[in-house]
Amino acid sequence: MDKKLHKFLDSNLLNKYLVGETSIEENKEVEYFISTYPKAADAYQKLQDNLEIIAKAGATNVPKNILSNILEELDDTSNTKVIQLVQQKQTPWYSIAASAAAVLFATMSFLLYQKNLELTDENNIVVDEIFDLRGDIDNNNSKLNELSKVLNNLNNPDAKKYVINGNERAKNLKTVAYINPVDKTTMIDVISLPQLPKDQHYQIWAELQDRMVNLGILDESERQLKPIPYMEDALALSIKIGTDGTENNANDNAVAEVSLKQ
Distance between CA atoms of 241 and 191, rounded to whole angstroms? Predict the structure, then answer.
C-alpha cells in the first residue's frame, strides 16, 4: 500500500471529516484521497454506513399521537399567553380617568399661578399709583392751604393794598404789595417788569426812618404772590435796578416807589 495512503488512513482525518471537524485544508486533503484512491473511498463509505447503523440502533419509536398533542399544547399555550398579554396591556378606565384628572389639575394650577402673578403685578401697580395720588393730593392740599392763607391775608380787613407803578424809566412796571400790620406779613405780586440786561435785576427796598433795607429780588418769571420780609414802621417801598453781586440803594436807580403812610 502506498505510504501516503497508509498514513492518511491512520490519521483519523476521515472520521473528523465525517463529523465536520476538519479545516479547509484538511477537507481538501480528504477529498483528494477519496477521489484518487479507491481504498480511501471505500473506507469513507464504510464509516458512513457504520454511522447510520449506530444512529438507527439508538433511535426510539415515537408514539403516533405525540406530534398532534405537542401542537395542541403549543396552540393552547400561545393563546393563553396572548390573552394574558392583552389583558396585562389593557389599562383600566379609572386609571385613564385619574391620569386625565391629574393633567387637568396640573394645567389649572399652572394657569391659576400665572393669573395670580398677573394680579399681584397689577395690585402692585395700583398700590404705587395710589401712593402717587396720595402724594399729589398732599402737595395740592399744601398748595391750597398756602393759597387759602394768601387769600385770607388779601381779604383780611386789616390788610392794605399798595400799587407800585414804574416811573419814566420803567413805564410798564407794575407790582402790588399787600401789607397786614396785624399779622405782620407782607406779600408782593409781580404783574409786569420791563426786561433788563442779563447782568441787572430789580430789587425791592423798604425805606425806614434812618436807613434802606433790601427785601429781595423781583423776577417776572415768578408772577405769583410771594412773601417778602415785613418791616415795622416802614415809610415807603421802592423798586431799584441793581447789578448782579452788588446792592445799590442809590435813589437815582429807583424806577418805582410808593408811600406806606396815609
Answer: 17
